[in-house]
Amino acid sequence: MVSQNPSLHSHEDASIVVLKFGSSILADERSLPIAVHEVYRHIRAGKKVVAVVSAMGCTTNKLLEQAARFGPSPDPVGVAALAAIGEAQSVGLLTLALDRAGVPANALDHAALGLRTHGPILDAKLDGIDVGRVRAALADRPVLVVPGFLGRDDLGRTTLLGRGGSDFSALFIAAKLHCRCVLLKDVDGLYEADPSENPQARRFDSISYDDLLALPEGVVQHKAVRFAKEHGLVFGVGLVGQPVGSLVGPQATRLAAAKNEKAKLRVAFLGLGTVGLGVFQHVARLPDQFEVAAIGVKNVQKHIEAGIPPILLSSDLDAVVDSPCDVIIETIGGLHPAKELILRALRAGKHVVTANKAVLAAFGDELFAAAKASNVSLVYSASVGGGVPVVESVRRSRDAAGVARIRGVLNGTTNFILGQLEKGREFDAAVKQAQQAGFAEADPSADLDGIDVANKLVVLAREAFGAVISVESVAREGIRGVSARDVALARNEGQAIRLVGRLWRDAQRVHASVAPERVDLSDLLAQTRDEFNAVEIEQTDGEVVKLLGRGAGRWPTAESVFGDLFELAQHVSGSSRRVHAVNTSGGVA
Question: CA-CA distances (angstroms) from residue 182 to 6, 52, 63, 226, 470?
Fold first, then answer.
């Protein structure tokens, strides 16, 4: 991971990372989720991300060919303006894909970034960037998506940075932000020779600027390397979802040990509903890293007709747990048989990923004890917040300074319903709309009565304070008593009604509550719309961590579950199938 890289500068900003996605990663629209996974795993780690994107696949070549049809020497001004379309498309699509997964992102074009250039229009050199605007965009949202390969000259004309321009712009932005940069490629690092042509070629763990410049131009263009050398910028080259494969910098060149093929992580699913199917699709996109061993469902024939391979499907959930797998992904929900199946898996020495906050709230002690006894992990980030990394953020605050209190909108379904009430719909119609949108269950009681938020507060109490509290101890009031008239009156007085969960500790004990509250329109919690969640974590040192994003639906929850799986895969040895350590809350240490 990026955190393994040596320091770039003594004044490095460790809170930001620049990730560059080239056309080999963004081959087409179907590859967008892979880029989302990579961005999300850094967001989970508490980073802000600048995602630099190239045009997809062969888009730039096709645009240049289109320009060439206007004559043997088309005007560079028009060529550059036309070529910019490819990067603009990638910026827009990745921003939308991130939003779908619950990750708020800003998008700025090369003009808004202030990427100033000089020299030939089709092979320009970068001069400067508006660092203040970049930092403001990252303060507003945790991800900023920007185009590579493009700049603006003194006249405001679009310019191209030439071959390897996206790598160059990514490194340029990282240098100006004094942060880290990883160039993501379709290989796991830099090699002595093309590994597709020479399987015996060895990978560089690290390589000096000069040694890389002595090699033929390939994965990284020399002008980008020369820029990094001039600015003392250490950068990584690697594959999505993997630790950085090669570090480029002033350090000595070092070859990796003999290539050790890492075994695929074998995954079995319990449930293939809205969330489970989303996770399955993510897993299927990365066949080099994951293998699906079995899928447990109620109706086998239904899923066969939906295109799931029959050999994977079974209605015998115990048999699925007993299948030759390393990780069980539980998305069936409810208390039973989820508890029994999770226990069976943990006791059999298998890791478990779940979004089931109810089973964690009711049986957490027993489940975590079983995980510890078997030296495996029970991971559950998706149990709170959907695509919003609430659990990870609480852990970081706990470890950094300690948590004083937590306050947030933690149920996307009720927030969606309250949003419908703001539009003038009556309560029953709003609930029906939430069901039709896929946010509310056929029986929405757990959401409407605050039970779902209470379960989440129990999970967060363990994370924040190491405290075991019961759902029954949570002071609870749902939203059944809220009407469209109540919402309208609050709005007229400059307020919004939100279902607010609160968690705090005093000298005696941990307290938790959930109830509808009026909040000022300027409040972070009022900024939530539809299925969004928002959380404020106040640390004991007074610092407040604020989070906002989509908290319900297939894509945000599936992204969070897959994020757990992605992280788990980084800690699991291909031979022992054990994580290096298990922390006290059951997550990966």
Answer: 13, 10, 27, 16, 44
SS3 93: helix
* Number of CB atoms found within 10 A of residue 569's CB: 21
Cα 130 to Cα 442: distance, rounded to the nearest angstrom? 50
**Coil, helix or strand at residue 75:** coil
Residue 464 CA to residue 422 CA, distance in Å, equals 33
Q: What angle do CA 389, 291, 347 make, to 5 degrees?
A: 70
From CA 143, how far away is CA 149, in angstroms rounded? 19
Rounded to whole angstroms, the Cα distance separating 365 from 376 reads 15
Burial of 343 (0-12, 13-18, 19+ CB in 10 A): buried
- Which long-range contacts does 417-423 make (Cβ < 8 Å, 24+ apart)? 417/448, 417/479, 418/479, 418/482, 418/487, 418/496, 418/497, 418/498, 418/499, 419/529, 419/530, 421/482, 421/483, 421/484, 421/486, 421/487, 421/497, 422/484, 422/487, 422/488, 422/491, 422/496
Long-range contact list for 440-445, CB < 8 A, 24+ apart? Answer: 440/413, 440/416, 444/413
Report the pLDDT value the prediction gives residue 263, as an integer from 0 to 100: 77
Letter for the amino acid at 366? E
Strands 105-107 and 254-255: unpaired
The predicted structure's pLDDT at residue 588: 37
Q: State the Cα–Cα distance between residues 542 and 271, nearest whole angstrom.
A: 42
Whether residue 302 lies in the annotated active site: no
**The predicted structure's pLDDT at residue 490:** 96
What are the structural domains of the chain? 13-255 (3.40.1160.10), 265-384 (3.40.50.720), 390-552 (3.30.360.10)
User: Average pLDDT of each block of 10 consecutive residues along the chain (589 residues)?
Assistant: 40 89 92 95 95 94 93 93 95 96 95 94 94 96 95 95 90 95 92 84 93 88 91 92 90 82 87 93 92 95 94 96 96 94 97 96 96 96 91 95 97 95 94 91 94 97 96 97 96 97 94 98 94 95 94 89 90 48 38
End-to-end CA distance of the chain: 14
284: phi then psi, degrees, rounded to nearest 5 = -65, -25
Taking Cα atoms as reference points, which of 233, 84, 85 lies closest to residue 160? 84
Residue from 20, 223, 350, 456 carrying the catalytic annotation = 456
Which two tokens mark 157?
Answer: 């004309």
In contact, 516 and 482? CB cutoff 8 Å:
yes
3-state secondary structure of 166: helix
> In a 10 Å sphere around its CB, with 0-12 CB exposed, 13-18 middle and 19+ buried, how is residue 192 labelled?
middle
Distance of CA 484 to the CA centre of its chain: 35
Q: What local confidence, expressed as pLDDT, does residue 218 receive?
A: 80
Contacts of 279 (CB under 8 A, 6+ apart): 269, 329, 331, 558, 561, 562, 565
Element at 181 (helix H, strand E): strand 180-185
Rounded to the nearest angstrom, the gap between the alpha carbon of residue 503 and the centroid of all alpha carbons in its chain is: 25
